[in-house]
Write a structure and sequence with these properties.
252 residues; 7-stranded parallel β-sheet; 7 helices; 37% helix
């Protein structure tokens, strides 16, 4: 058994792909998300192979986070891997036309939620013989673009958190990896466009985007490096993507 991985945003997209892949590689799991039926479904599927515990809460609601780690059973009190995956984009508008609630949601989940969860899980990581924090950022945190001010800012914050956290945790024997995906075909765009599936589908037309499993495999690669190796930062783009906003769409 490889140890225990604590995954936020585990009920869909990259988080779900990480859960499935890590379970197949012998990791016990703490799966976090807002959808209890989906958490139950994943637990039933993956607990055939590994031990799984679920925590249902909204990472954007700080009042729900205060006692999270205290709810972990004894067998899950030692965490070997924290994957901060929960996050998302809401809206694609110039700042003066952006919804205040969208801005709040992105800051509360992408930044504050990540900080709070990490703060509470660090003591569990300290019980491991060499823990590992993996933050799922975005190419938008490195290459900000118009109509994405709040989202880009939130992901730039994740980049800064990863750098600062590494300086704090490396002396404690804990690695920190920042992974910045480009265009990944998950429910990301459907969420950004408020459930408009047709508009979301157009984001991925004319090229082959990344899929969630590509990022999960990258996470596993980083976790499997020898103890002497720490992957500090990785940017992963689709073959047709050259920058955050530049994609070669051959069929259009």
């Amino acid at each position: 058994m490889k140890g225990t991985a604590f995954i936020t945003g585990a009920t869909s997209g990259i988080g779900e792909a990480c859960a499935i892949l890590l379970a197949s590689n012998g990791y016990n799991l703490v799966l976090c998300g807002r959808n209890q039926p989906k958490l139950n479904q994943l637990k039933n599927k993956l607990s055939q192979h590994v031990d799984v515990h679920t925590l249902c809460f909204d990472i954007g609601h700080t009042d729900q986070l205060k006692e999270i780690t205290k709810k972990l059973p004894e067998a899950f009190q030692r965490i070997d891997v924290l994957i901060n995956n929960a996050g998302g984009a809401h809206g694609l508008d110039e700042l003066d036309h952006s919804s205040i609630s969208d801005i709040d949601q992105m800051i509360d989940v992408n930044v504050k939620g990540l900080l709070y969860i990490t703060r509470m899980v660090i003591p569990c990581l300290m019980r491991s013989n060499g823990g590992h924090v993996v933050n799922i950022s975005s190419v938008a945190g490195k290459q900000p673009y118009g109509k994405g001010v709040a989202y880009c800012a939130s992901k730039a914050a994740v980049e800064a958190i990863s750098e600062s956290l590494r300086q704090e945790l490396v002396p404690r024997g804990i690695k920190v990896t920042n992974i910045a995906p480009g265009a990944v075909n998950t429910n990301f765009s459907t969420t950004r466009f408020k459930g408009d599936t047709e508009r979301a589908a157009r984001v991925y037309q004319g090229f082959s985007p990344l899929v969630a499993e590509d990022i999960a495999e990258t996470v596993l690669f980083c976790l499997n490096r020898p103890s002497r190796v720490q992957i500090s930062d990785m940017t992963i783009l689709a073959s047709a993507q050259s920058t955050a906003t530049t994609i070669h769409r051959a069929d259009l």
